[in-house]
Amino acid sequence: MEIYRFRHLTLVTLLFLRHACVDADKTNRQQKTYIVHMDKSLMPESSNDHLQWYDSSLKLVSDSASMLYTYNNVIHGYSARLTSEEARLLEEQPGILSVQEEVRYELHTTRSPEFLGLLKDAAVTESNTMSEVIIGVLDTGVWPESSSFDDRELGPVPSGWKGECEVGKTFYKSSCNRKLIGARSFSQGYEEAFGPIDETAESNSPRDDDGHGTHTATTAAGSAVVGASLFGYAAGTARGMARHARLAAYKVCWLGGCFSSDILAAMEKAIEDGVNILSLSLGGSVTDYFRDTVAIASFAATSRGILVSCSAGNGGPSPGSLSNVAPWITTVGAGTMDRQFPAYISLGNGKKFPGSSLYSGKPLSSSFVPLVFAGNVSNTSNGNVCTTGSLIPEKVKGKIVICDRGLNARAQKGLVVRDAGGIGMILANTESYGEELVADAHLIPTAAVGQATGGIIKKYVFTETNPTATVATGSTQLGVQPSPVIASFSSRGPNPITPDVLKPDLIAPGVNILAGWTGKVGPTGLQEDSRHVDFNIVSGTSMSCPHASGLAALIKAAHPEWSPAAIRSALMTTAYSTYKNGQGIQDLATGLPSTPFDYGAGHVDPISALDPGLVYDATIDNYIDFLCALNYSASMIKIITKQDYSCKDGKEYSVGDLNYPSFSVPIQTASGPGGGSSAPTVVKYTRTLTNVGNPATYKVTVSQETKAVKILVEPEVLIFSKPNEKKSFTVTFTTSSMPSGTTSFDYLKWMDGKHTVGSPIAFSWS
Ligand SMILES: *[C@@H]1O[C@H](CO)[C@@H](O)[C@H](O)[C@H]1NC(C)=O
Ligand SMILES: *[C@@H]1O[C@H](CO)[C@@H](O)[C@H](O)[C@H]1NC(C)=O
Ligand SMILES: *[C@@H]1O[C@H](CO)[C@@H](O)[C@H](O)[C@H]1NC(C)=O
What is the pTM of this model? Predict the structure, then answer.
């Protein structure tokens, strides 16, 4: 998987270096951070309070173990440094639900407001209540001097706000204002794993030395900045989705990653502080919900009415590559916009090809120079991707080099070419990236090309005796069609944990996004890049997530009483999955139409989402029923919910009955004892709609594209005579057997003549 954060290379290097230090430190070697989940109902009466009780539980197994954080909102429990033996002993003590080793998460942007139609209808999106909504962003911190944090248009900080502006060596009380109303940093888990923060390398404060956090925060809710651009590219007014909402930064990601004890602590505080929306552009490996820190903490946030929006991951286009799939989380994939940054390649044979680039330095001369393929001028096995030191200078000097995408950062490859004496680069997609063109602020003249173009150019190099080329960059192009298309990198379904819940939920812009940047590093994030920019253009589901977070804030402002599930439902049921001409949204990885496993309910359409007509609401109890349907034990459920809850004996819980705005129907291709195919399987899902509009009569339509499944909806008409009225319906799927691996899709729509409440249905046979 290619990493969309350009700093990852430095990051990996640091990891190695620092691991070496940790290894040398023999005394600490055995200790790791564990998250200890306590069963508060078992607190002995002799304990004065839960903190004392937590402390004594720890003392039972270790005199020396130190507690990092205690938690009360997100979980009941604490994090502590323990040896694996101590952790095992602790888990056996009464009152302990589980002791889980901490995991490391990784971080997974002005056209988007226009592309999303937000400028057409300013009145609806700039209501008075907008400035009451607070978005908390867990990321690498913020660069408070960014003009996107200008607060001139905003009134006093919302009265209920309890957050703080934590002061550090590089962060001041004055760093916060009426836009950036809070900033905190959480590093105890990180420092336990990596040693004390080296302030020459990164700020021990909420300050963003990376850029990622400033980019995500300003995408969600940055103020409007006129005349923003990156070296003139993407010039225009930069603004966040909810430009009058407030921002609070929670720095949890450091040079070495983002640690779960710190993430828990940040979400603990964010809940207390009073945020309304949480935006997390980070992810770890997917695991069961009771082991997944972000899922557990998000459950607590959701139960307090806070919508949690997370990036789907950059693991695409492999199937099942999603992260952050808990059904109470809004999982956001990435699509392109109608904007490109063109570059032009001319070959010695007269052929010309389009590419993409954000190079802004001295252009190459227009005369042709020799062109080589990296794989032919390197002495390492993966020399084709231009890793550090892999190119042979005598064979590269004065030439343009074709480097394949993958393994190291894209802009880094240009430096490798430059260090070997090369003067230009053609960055070619390999198969998994398809025709996706991600633009970068390269340090040498570069054009990125899709796999097909790359293939033609390579063939020319392999067959011509003296291949030559030249590369030039152009100016920003708008109105590119088709758009959106699914980004190749966007992680795909099916849902690897619960296939009965369709994920991702939706897609939002995540390719070549312009937003605010740090003053600490240049636009490529590379050490060698000494340029400073106020805005940068980057790509990833990290960028699409804060778009959804900001749009959720718009809906929250318009409908303050809506639950997180209702807000997500509004975003999902009004999303679109076809272009105006009726054709399905394309997938950049394949050039073919994409499916709900790629985009969930589709691409967000915020103006429609403000008036969805009906919503699929869900309460915390519905999510607990879902956990019962997963057959989770009482203690697993308690880790997530902090509540005593017994799933009712004899009650039939069904995962498919979770009141979700989309449908996913995994079908077992059951074979009888003789191997023969079995009779049709019947699966029944129940859903409840809540009227959030005027009295209306809705009729259902189902697309019935899937021949192997008969879909029956009962009733077919729902009459809502008052606001907030609820009506249920059932969908019966009668499925016949299909070869394992078959997938098929349909759509179910409730329409009243004004609203279309759409849900995708995904069938998969296994
Ligand atoms: C260059 O590399 C390609 C692909 O690996 C290979 O097919 C070709 O033979 C190589 N050409 C030379 C001159 O080594
Ligand atoms: C090629 O291989 C040799 C020997 O393994 C190594 O010393 C050298 O640094 C490599 N790279 C180049 C560019 O020659
Ligand atoms: C839960 O257990 C029931 C009864 O054993 C079984 O039918 C059902 O398939 C299980 N559900 C899941 C999600 O494992």
Answer: 0.92
